[in-house]
Amino acid sequence: MAGDFQTALGDTGGAVTALFGASGSRAAATSYDEAERIARENAAFARQATRIKGMQIGRETFKVLGQQRAEVSGAGFAESGSALDILRSSASQGAMTKAINEEQGAITANAYEEQAAQFAGMAKAARTSSSGQGIGGLLQAGGAGYSLYSGISSLFAGGGGAAAALAV
Q: What end-to-end distance do the CA atoms of the chain give, in Å?
């Protein structure tokens, strides 16, 4: 009889622990969802920043080439020979700078996307854990209720002897 009450108390404690654990796991899932959203926003910002910087690089390259053409013309030379070599080199340098910018932007955006995927996985795991803890807590609460019912039933079924045994 006393064992039934002890079991009931143990099951009740386990149920409370599991239910609070489920609540904590739900809160963790919400935090992971927020972190995923932020990482996806950062990926979008990185892509946009890469596009903007690409336009800036293109504009700067165009400006440098225009300035070089003006200097060649202003000096009375034709766009041939060394002048063309200088223009080609500047255009090549601009294209290479733009390509490096695009590659770095893709790497940064992909890193944020990977981070978002990891947070999504952690959120899913936390939600799954929350469900399991909630179900376990409810089952333990049911067991506690059954143990308590069994203890009370046996107390009344046994008569005065059961009450005396409980008092000892």
A: 12
31 DSSP assignment = H
d(CA 156, CA 163): 8
pLDDT digits (tens, 9 = 90+) for 110-167: 999 999 999 999 888 888 888 777 777 777 777 777 777 777 777 677 655 544 455 5
Q: How buried is 137 (Cβ within 10 angstroms: 0-12 exposed, 13-18 middle, 19+ buried)?
A: buried
Alpha-carbon distance 54 to 3, whole Å?
Answer: 75
Pair 18, 132: CB distance under 8 Å: no
Q: What residue type is 18 in one-letter code?
A: A
| pTM as predicted | 0.63
Per-residue pLDDT band for 108 (boundaries 50, 70, 90) equals very high
Beta strands in 9-108 (DSSP E): none
Locate 27 and state its tokens.
């809160």
Domain count across the chain: 1
Per the structure, the complete domain to which residue 89 belongs is given by: 2-167
Radius of gyration from C-alpha coordinates of the chain: 36
